[in-house]
Amino acid sequence: MPEIWLGYGDAEIILDIKYENISKILKPEVKTINPEDLSAIIHDNINLQTSTLILITTPFPKMFDILKTINESNSKLDLQSPDIFVLSKPFTLRLRQDIYKETLKIARIEPEELLKKLPLYRNIILIDKIEYDPVFGFAGSPTKLIRECYPNVMNQIYPSIVGEMPKPGSSGDALKITIESLSKLTCQMIHVYSNRETIDSIYIGHEINSFLDAIERFKEKTSITGEYLKSAFISGSTSYTSQLDLGSSLNLLWNNCHSVLDGGTIVLLSENRGGINEGALSKFIEGRLDLNGLEKYQYINEIEHINFLQLIQEKYEIILISTLPQVYLNKLGLKSVTKIKDGLDWILRKYGKYSKSNIIPFSEITSIRKNIT
After folding, report:
1. What is the CATH number of the domain that holds 167?
2. What's the pLDDT tens digit per position in 186-232?
3. Do 108 and 167 belong to one domain?
4. How sure is the predictor about 292, in pLDDT bands with cuts at 50, 70 and 90?
5. Do 96 and 170 share a structural domain?
6. In sequence order, which residues have a C-beta less than 8 Å from that of residue 28 and are 6 or more positions away?
């Protein structure tokens, strides 16, 4: 049997699967940028000055390489150290440990506080890694800011969600509204294509709409072809929050569920140590969200997942490997098993001992297109 390790929260678990049951392991190539080249790109393209705020809109393991390079350039210029914030829920244990190891002064900031601070700085640098997203098409600093800080803009975007299937990799109305809404924000942006271990590419821009160029270059690197099958294993682990809560895991599902044929089965690794966020998912589980006409609502955090679940509930069988209680998942129409082996056994019983599955280990940075032969 091949050793296939899949991300499960902050750890990895092994999928003991026979070669004959694997169609393909679908993941993009991630090369390693030379550290000297990384430093040179940042040094040559990022303007540093006093009164600088660095905002990490999604914490990810390789952000420390970027922060250390900026600090080194800052020291050479004899400038005051920048203030570094993470727009984040309470830090995960692994993130706290990594910050401690790097001896960097990094603070968590809430959306309301961030909006008050932004006008106080002369220089703003946004840092994030690009991922696929079922609402905006792509995730990065602009989309994270809109989600977290601008509820009125999310209300404008909401009509483009209701009744629509997930749209990962598509630059539609939601992304257009995002770019237009943030067009007056003066900032520099650093985005990367990376996994946990390495940075492949870095994209630097000096205005919000430069994100559009970055995502096109990201898409070129991360779009891969594969055969659409009746079953797949989906996971993700390239950021600290890939499987933190149910909503994060469902994003992994939506990014590539289209690669499973109608009536198929998806096993989703979904540890969810952070549980279920306050928002649409929890309201629905508690019986406080009426599904008769989702269009009547304004945007509620993570309501897109309720919309997508309604649209695909007859299309796929979804099985979670999760710490969440089954009673909650039942209300969402999701099944769960305790071990990944149980998920594999489920598929083999349903489709036969010689059936094949696709394995998608990094769904947040993978876009699968149908292999046309």
Report:
1. 3.40.50.11440
2. 999 999 999 999 999 999 999 999 999 999 999 999 999 999 999 99
3. yes
4. confident
5. yes
6. 221, 222, 223, 224, 362, 365, 366
